[in-house]
């Protein structure tokens, strides 16, 4: 069975921002986690409309900062910036399947099709920083091109410390069941990712050669999931958790941005509960933080 420091929080675009990571950290102080992906162009350009470009990670360790892009020099420069910002390691995204990243930008999952470019990027990033570098990838572009082992071993030759393997191809997006192949052929440790939500989902992964597990969508509305998998209890007062998350979001983004952004989190927290559909409809019409707090308090019966 994996220990706490072998169970990672995955990078989730638009979700694992600093407010959500604070919630994760409140339940799992020592769990390794990865930021949502950051564009190398955005961080090197210090784009002011993207708050995560200015996060300081010194108080979040163990944490890896994930970058994506196709420009070798910019990827190296972005890695250095994030190292200076306190990241514990740099993670290179080689698995994002969305078209604006994987096709139009030639980054993310596109690097599974261009191993030469992937090798140049990995070598440049490893050479640019003094902290470890990891990669996150998928089984391959599609069922006919499942060359994950080759790519991970190229990563090892570049000096990459470990890899996370999502058990789907790019063509699958997030559909179908994740498959976790035997990774004992890989030269570096591999972390399993995909459809891992409970402790039962860890069964057999060590026998397949995995060195840990990474939880992604299982975190939605469940920032205690890492702790729960490690054998700890679910919080009794979920409403208080939701309110704390909202406070962190307002503190980080400001009320105008935080309230509409938080609607998706409120929906995930309420999933499966009685009257959750009505609650989601109500929340989607709220723009005021105080009104949203009252709705949350009423739904979870804490007023």
The biggest sheet amounts to: 9 strands, parallel
**What percentage of amino acids are in beta strands?**
5-15%
Order of helices and strands: EHEEHEHEHHEHEEEHHHHH
Q: Provide the low-confidence segments as ranges.
A: none
The total count of helices amounts to: 11
- In CATH, the topology of the largest domain is named TIM Barrel
Number of strands: 9
Task: Give a quick set of tags describing it.
single chain; 303 residues; alpha/beta; TIM Barrel; Non-ribosomal Peptide Synthetase Peptidyl Carrier Protein, Chain A; nine-stranded parallel β-sheet; 11 helices; 37% helix
List the topology elements.
Elements: E1 7-9, H1 18-27, E2 33-34, E3 38-39, H2 40-44, E4 63-68, H3 72-84, E5 89-94, H4 99-102, H5 115-128, E6 133-138, H6 148-157, E7 162-166, E8 190-193, E9 212-215, H7 225-229, H8 238-253, H9 255-270, H10 276-283, H11 289-299
Parallel strand pairs: 1-9, 2-4, 3-4, 4-5, 5-6, 6-7, 7-8, 8-9
